[in-house]
Structures are given as structure tokens and as C-alpha cells.
Amino acid sequence: MKPTLLILAAGMGSRYQGLKQMDTFGPSGEAIIDYSIYDAIRAGFGKIVFVISKKIEAEFKELFIDKLKDKIEISYVLQEIDNLPDGFEVPADRVKPWGTGHAVLVAAKEIDTPFAVINADDFYGQYSFKVLADYLKEMDLETTDYCMVGYRLENTLSEHGSVSRGICVTDRGDFLQSITERTKINRLNGDIGFEEEGSRLPLTGNEVASMNMMGFPPSVMEHYQSQFKDFLKERGNELKSEFYIPTVVNNLIHSGGARMKVLNTPEKWFGVTYRDDKAIAVKKLEELVKAGVYPANLWG
User: Fold this and answer.
1) What secondary structure letter does DSSP report for 175?
2) What is the model's pLDDT at position 209?
3) Vertex 92, ends 90 and 95: CA angle to 5°?
4) For residue 231, how many C-alpha atoms fall within 13 Å in the half-sphere facing its CB?
5) Which residues fall within 8 angstroms of residue 290, CB to CB, at 6 or more apart?
6) How far apart are CA 293 and CA 106, in angstroms?
7) Backbone angles phi, psi at 213, to 5 degrees
8) CB under 8 Å, gap of 24 or more: what pairs does 88-96 form?
9) Which helix (H) or strand (E) element contains residue 88?
10) Contact (CB, 8 A) for 14 and 56
11) What is the Cα 146 distance to its own chain's centre?
12) What's the confidence (pLDDT) of residue 14?
């Protein structure tokens, strides 16, 4: 059974000042998403599902759907703030999307195989897709053993500003014990640290970082649905509250409802959180093309 790749592409990229999921980075005009899809196809994924917003639907279809329809089975769903379970309403002044957990949930009808979740604007590397696909191909549809790709924190930092990362604690068997969201992580005078309540706290750089590259069976959608309802009851009236993937994972792990295997990768992440990140991403992709990792034209 070939797994499905779920790509979260609904974010608007306020810090990037543009639609980074559709910006060009590769030597033949490829977006970062193109490299993820290329890696996913050669790793053995059988279907791509995009989560996008209505605002970018027409442009997104023009850039990606037609181009990829002969390469792999492909579909998309819309993440809108009024896509809520029965009995819930959007607060009158809310404009912010409901978060990554909600993005996964809106794709439930398109998922009937084990699936992976990734961000559209992150470059994960071919090894990461290979190890994830291999795990998912053997995953039972009803299993409670999930998986995630774990990166070395030092390999996930931006050179142009701070980032937020899920810092993971694992046991001796490489099963996840917890994910703690750390914000404003950066290098300062050569040292890595993060800010919390006005203080800067140190990190070694060797910590396992989650980049939201995770794998689940389709049965996990029941947990996303029930936890999203609980979230709406508790925080649905907060105009900026968000329902995150790591929240679902943490709740299941702490309740004993699931385990998550951490699949470590040596790959170096790069992404485009900030506009200044683009030049670095372009350069790194050029280097990978010159090294023969990717062709100069992915789809040519």
C-alpha cells in the first residue's frame, strides 16, 4: 500500500511578505514544494493531497495541479475558518486560521492510507522522505504506533531571524516522550538559545527538533476530530488560538493512547520563514543540482 503525502500550504507567510509556497527557488522555476513532491515520488508515495486556502486556489491550481497530474495522483482541500464540526460557530471577529491540527482534519475525506504530513515551505531532504515512506508502507491502518522524522536542532535554524521548533524528548527506543514548543530560537554570539518569559535559556544544538514531518494511520483522524471539539469548547472564543499537530500527539502519548517512533535524519533543513532566507535557499538548491541530487529541471 503506497502512503499519501499531505502538504500544508494554506499559510499566507506574513513574515515572508508573500506567498512563499508558490515562489520560485529552483533553477527552472521550481517551488520548494516541487522538491518535496519529487522526493516523495521516488521514495514511494502514491498520492499527494494539498491543504490550501480559498484565496490562493486559482493560482495554486494553475501552478501545481495541472503540472503534476500525470506524475502522481493529486487532489486538494480548502482550509477555511468556518469548516467546523456541527454545533460550533466562528467568533464574529476571528480572521486567523485554526492551525495545523485543523489543516490535517479538513483533509480527512481524502485520506484512506497511512499518510505523512509536511509543511509546504520547508525543504526536508530525500533521506527524510525515504525513511518515512519505508515506515509508512509497513504501517497497519489501525495502529497506534505513529512516527515522525527528527532533525538535529542545529540543522534547522535560520540565518536571518529566530524560529519556533518542537523540541523532542525520546526514550532509549527512540519513542517520543514529549514535544515542547520553543519560540525565538536563534544563534547569538555563536551560542544557540531561546527566549521564555523575558529570559534567554541555552540549547546545545543537538536536541531532536520536530519539523512537523510526521506519519499517521488514517484512523488518527478520529483523535483529531475529538480533540478539536475539546479545543473549541475551551479556547474557541479566543480570536488567535490555534490547534496544533503536536498538541494532538502530546495528548495521545501522555494518555497512553499512542506511541510515536522518532526516525532520525542527517539532512539539513532549510526554509523560507523570512524574505532574506530566499537567497540561501536558492543557493543550496543550486548546490544540490550541481551535486547530482536533483536534475536542473525537475519535471522537464
Assistant:
1) B
2) 95
3) 70
4) 22
5) none
6) 34
7) -105, 95
8) 88/229, 88/232, 88/236, 91/236, 91/237, 91/239, 93/239, 94/239, 95/239, 96/239, 96/240, 96/242
9) none
10) no
11) 15
12) 43
AA identity, residue 293: V
Bridge partner residues of 146 (DSSP): 260
Tens digit of each residue's pLDDT (9 = 90 or more) over 121-169: 899 999 999 999 999 999 999 999 999 999 999 999 988 788 889 899 9
Domains, the chain: 4-290 (3.90.550.10)
Do the Cβ atoms of 186 and 193 come closer than 8 Å? yes
11 or 60, which is more confident: 60
Q: Where are the beta strands (DSSP E) in the chain?
A: 4-8, 47-52, 73-78, 115-119, 122-123, 145-152, 163-170, 176-188, 191-196, 199-202, 208-216, 259-264, 270-271
Residue 19: which of 298, 275, 214 has the closest Cα?
275
pLDDT at 15 over 70: no
Instruction: Reply yes or no on whether the pLDDT at 220 is more than 70.
Output: yes
Tell me how far apart the alpha carbons of residues 262 and 150 are, in angstroms, rounded to a whole number. 6
Residue with cell 536571518: 160
C-alpha cell at 56: 490562493
Measured CA to CA in angstroms, residue 156 lies from 16, 37, 159, 266 at distances of: 17, 20, 10, 11
Judged against a pLDDT cut of 60, whether residue 9 lies above it is answered with yes
Q: What is the pLDDT of residue 16?
A: 40
How confident is residue 265, by pLDDT bands cut at 50, 70 and 90? very high
Helix axes 221-235, 245-255, angle to 10 degrees: 110
State the CB neighbour count (10 A cutoff) for residue 151.
Answer: 25
